[in-house]
Every structure is written in structure tokens, then in C-alpha cells.
């Protein structure tokens, strides 16, 4: 044991030294500079953006709120004549259910696979885990066909068309499907690491599986659930491919990323709208992350040690 500790000591010294602190600080600054430049550019006029770099504000400060006014309430460009606010609301309506649905299903499935033994449970768990290697792009067209025309074997219709393409449900369902394999895997590892004595004591006291899940597993699994919720929120909020595919060109349900992408045209970009709109898109994820950051590290380390 002493030999192992002595071997681990040099590594610990390296990662806790002043050099490591300097490296992390430099990486953080490099990572933050583009976001700072985006934030400053969103308060500059179009003439200033095209004439000088964003760092010029430190020499000659000049700011305006006109970009945010145009982007939020309309008039920024022809493609954003009605403002970005309706599409921001669409993104919220898409993202929140797309986070809640897979978390609810995955938490119950993870508890079932971890603590309710049945024939084929291990095979089912490894099969769900293996689904992560399937590229998302391979499933987009089959799922879209399921939504629009159903499933046919020859001339026989096996599954009728779900009719959810071009609706919010048509985006919620794919995001839920794509999130479940990873969510079940991560939550299973955490729930399976809970003390067996705690579960056995609850069974002795007469608690059924539903009560154990609700009273014991859920409160103890909050760090893991919150950590995955952050990942899923960021993934869905920043998604463009799934939204483009399953929104089917319906502007009424288009998220904010689809509208921002339309600002990048063949003959140039509306930089004033792009900078203000882009910073609006990252504002809410930042709020979510910093609100749940105390659970984030605990969730990442959940289940790693007993």
C-alpha cells in the first residue's frame, strides 16, 4: 500500500502544482476569449464591426442596444422581420420536454435493470449500451418515414403513420430516443452503486419497488440526474440537424438555431444580428449550467467509487 501511495505521489504533485494551475488558467482564457468577443460585438454597430476588431472597444468604447432591439422585436433583416423572440420560445418549448421525457424514462429503466433481476436483464442492458454506437444520421430518414408514412412490408401497412412531423411532438420523440441509451447507461451505473443494505432494509420494512424508487433512489440520484440534464439540455438547445429534419420546414415550430442559420446567406452575413442572436442562444444554457454546477462534478463522479 505504501508503495502504491509513493508511486501516485508524483502524479498528484504534477496535477496540483503551480504549473498545472497556470496551464488550466491559460486554457480557460483561450476558451473564454471568443465568447467575450461575441459579447462585445453584439453591442457594436455594423459600421464598427466591419471597420475594426472587437478589441478596439478598449481603446475607443462605443456601445449600442440597437442590435438586441432589432433581433428581439424585428427589423434585423428580412428573414427576422418578426424578431427572434418567437423562435427563442420555440427552443424552450422543444428543449424542456426533450430533457424531462428521457430523464423520467431512463431513471425508471435504470432502476429496473439495476435492482430488479429477470431473465435477459443483462443482455438488455448491454443491448441498450450498444445502441450508442449507431450513428444518429442513420436513423433520421427511417424515423421521418415512420412519422409521415408509417411502416410497410410490401403492400401491407404494419404501423400507421404517426402524423407528428412538423409538430413539437415530432421533435420531442427523436430527441428522447437518441438520449435514452446514454441516459440509461449513466444512471444505471450510479443507481447500481447504491448500498445493497439500504435496499434490503427497505424491502424488510415492506416497501415495494415503486416506493423504494420514489423515496430512496430518486433523492440519492439527484447529482447524476442533474449532470445528465445539463448534457441533454445543451445538446437539444444547440441542435440544428434534428430540428431541421423533423420540423419539416414549419416556421411555427422552428427553433432559434434554424433562424440564426438563415442569417448566413450566399452573399454575406448580417453580423449585427448574428452576434446579438448568437449571444442570446448561449445565455440560457449558461444560466442552466451555473444553476446546476454544484451537481455537475458530483454527477460526473457518480458511481465511480463505492
Q: What does this protein look like?
A:
The chain has 306 residues and is mostly helical. It is built from 14 helices and 4 strands. It has a two-stranded antiparallel ribbon with strand order 1-2. A two-stranded antiparallel sheet has the order 3-4. A hairpin with a 2-residue loop joins strand 1 (151-153) and strand 2 (156-159).
Helix-strand blueprint:
Elements lengths: L1 H14 L2 H24 L4 H6 L14 H8 L11 H31 L5 H10 L5 H14 L1 E3 L2 E4 L9 H24 L3 H9 L4 H12 L1 H17 L2 H6 L9 H6 L2 E2 L2 E2 L1 H30 L6
Antiparallel strand pairs: 1-2, 3-4
Helix pairs in contact: 2-14, 4-14, 5-8, 5-11, 6-8, 8-11, 11-14
Give me the count of strands: 4
Termini gap: 19 Å
Average of the residue pLDDT scores: 81
Largest sheet: 2 strands, antiparallel
Short description:
69% of the residues lie in helices and 4% in strands. By secondary structure, it is mainly alpha-helical. The longest helix is centred in the N-terminal third of the chain and has 31 residues, at 85-115.
Give a quick set of tags describing it.
two-stranded antiparallel sheet, 4% strand, two-stranded antiparallel ribbon, globular, mainly alpha, 306 residues, single chain, 4 strands
Amino acid at each position: 500500500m505504501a508503495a502504491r501511495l509513493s508511486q501516485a505521489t508524483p502524479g498528484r504533485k504534477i496535477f496540483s502544482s503551480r504549473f498545472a494551475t497556470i496551464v488550466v488558467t491559460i486554457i480557460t482564457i483561450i476558451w473564454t476569449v471568443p465568447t467575450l468577443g461575441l459579447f462585445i460585438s453584439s453591442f457594436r454597430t455594423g459600421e464598427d464591426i466591419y471597420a475594426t476588431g472587437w478589441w478596439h472597444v478598449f481603446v475607443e468604447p462605443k456601445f449600442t442596444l440597437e442590435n438586441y432591439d432589432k433581433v428581439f422585436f424585428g427589423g434585423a433583416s428580412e428573414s427576422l422581420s418578426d424578431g427572434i423572440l418567437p423562435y427563442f420560445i420555440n427552443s424552450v418549448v422543444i428543449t424542456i420536454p426533450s430533457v424531462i421525457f428521457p430523464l423520467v424514462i431512463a431513471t425508471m429503466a435504470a432502476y429496473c435493470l439495476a435492482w430488479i433481476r429477470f431473465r435477459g436483464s443483462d443482455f438488455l442492458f448491454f443491448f441498450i449500451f450498444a445502441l450508442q454506437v449507431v450513428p444518429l444520421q442513420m436513423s433520421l430518414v427511417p424515423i421521418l418515414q415512420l412519422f409521415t408514412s408509417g411502416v410497410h412490408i410490401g403492400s401491407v401497412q404494419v404501423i400507421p403513420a404517426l402524423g407528428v412531423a412538423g409538430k413539437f411532438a415530432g421533435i420531442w420523440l427523436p430527441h428522447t430516443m437518441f438520449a435514452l441509451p446514454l441516459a440509461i447507461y449513466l444512471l444505471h451505473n450510479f443507481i447500481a452503486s447504491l448500498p445493497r443494505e439500504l435496499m434490503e432494509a427497505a424491502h424488510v420494512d415492506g416497501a415495494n419497488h415503486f416506493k423504494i424508487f420514489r423515496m430512496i433512489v430518486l433523492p440519492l440520484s439527484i447529482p447524476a440526474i442533474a449532470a445528465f440534464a445539463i448534457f441533454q439540455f445543451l445538446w437539444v438547445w444547440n441542435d440544428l440537424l434534428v430540428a431541421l429534419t423533423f420540423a419539416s420546414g414549419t416556421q411555427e415550430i422552428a427553433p432559434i438555431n434554424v433562424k440564426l442559420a438563415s442569417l448566413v446567406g450566399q452573399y454575406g452575413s448580417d453580423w449585427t444580428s448574428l452576434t446579438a442572436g448568437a449571444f442570446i442562444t448561449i445565455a440560457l444554457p449558461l444560466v442552466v449550467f451555473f444553476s446546476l454546477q454544484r451537481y455537475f462534478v458530483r454527477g460526473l463522479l457518480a458511481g465511480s467509487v463505492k
